[in-house]
Amino acid sequence: MTTRREKIEAMLQDEPNDQFLRYSLAMEFSKEDNHERSLGLLTELIEDNPPHVPAFFMAGQQLAGLGQINKARDVLRAGIDVARQQGNQHAAGEMSEFLISLGGAGE
Fold first, then answer.
1. Would you say 21 and 8 are in contact if contact means Cβ atoms under 8 Å apart?
2. Which DSSP string do the residues of the chain spell out, in sequence order?
3. 49-68: b or e for each residue (b if 16 or more CB lie within 10 Å)?
4. 80 within 8 A of 92, measured Cβ to Cβ
5. pLDDT at 71 (0 to 100)
6. What pLDDT is stored for residue 23 in this prediction?
7. 3-state secondary structure of 58
8. What's the pTM?
9. Which segments of the chain have a pLDDT < 50?
10. This protein's superkingdom (predicted)?
């Protein structure tokens, strides 16, 4: 039986630059507790042009869950800036709230 991750990987063969598929694959790796692969994919999405805003939030959440609070704060702060630049106030607000919950100053 084909797993969800395998289906996404197959779709990525045809559409290797599809941000949604790459993000979905990162989430599947996270569910499998393969945080190294997940965070690697999220980092690639963050470095895309334009950056994929949800990748910042998910990377921040994973890093926080792994106890890497300072890295999580840095990613979230960068994500807030990018979200605002892209006019995504909702995402900026969600990341700000999460940053505050980590004991970091909101942006």
1. yes
2. ---HHHHHHHHHHH-TT-HHHHHHHHHHHHHTT-HHHHHHHHHHHHHSSS--HHHHHHHHHHHHHTT-HHHHHHHHHHHHHHHHHTT-HHHHHHHHHHHHHTTPPP-
3. eebbbbbbbbbbbbbbeeeb
4. yes
5. 97
6. 98
7. helix
8. 0.92
9. 107
10. Bacteria
Q: Give Cα separations from 74 to 43, 64, 86 (angstroms).
A: 13, 11, 19
How far is the C-alpha of 73 from the C-alpha of 71, rounded, in Å?
5
Tokens of 13: 């063969």
Residue 25 and residue 8: Cα distance in Å, rounded? 6
| pLDDT value for 104 | 58
Report d(CA 29, CA 36) in Å as an integer: 8
Residue 41 and residue 19 in contact, taking contact as beta carbons nearer than 8 Å: no
What digits encode the pLDDT tens for the residues 6-23?
Answer: 999 999 999 999 999 999
pLDDT, residue 103, reads 87
Let me know: does 25 contact 52? Beta carbons within 8 Å: no
Ramachandran class of 67: left when φ > 0, alpha when ψ lies in -120 to 50, beta otherwise: left
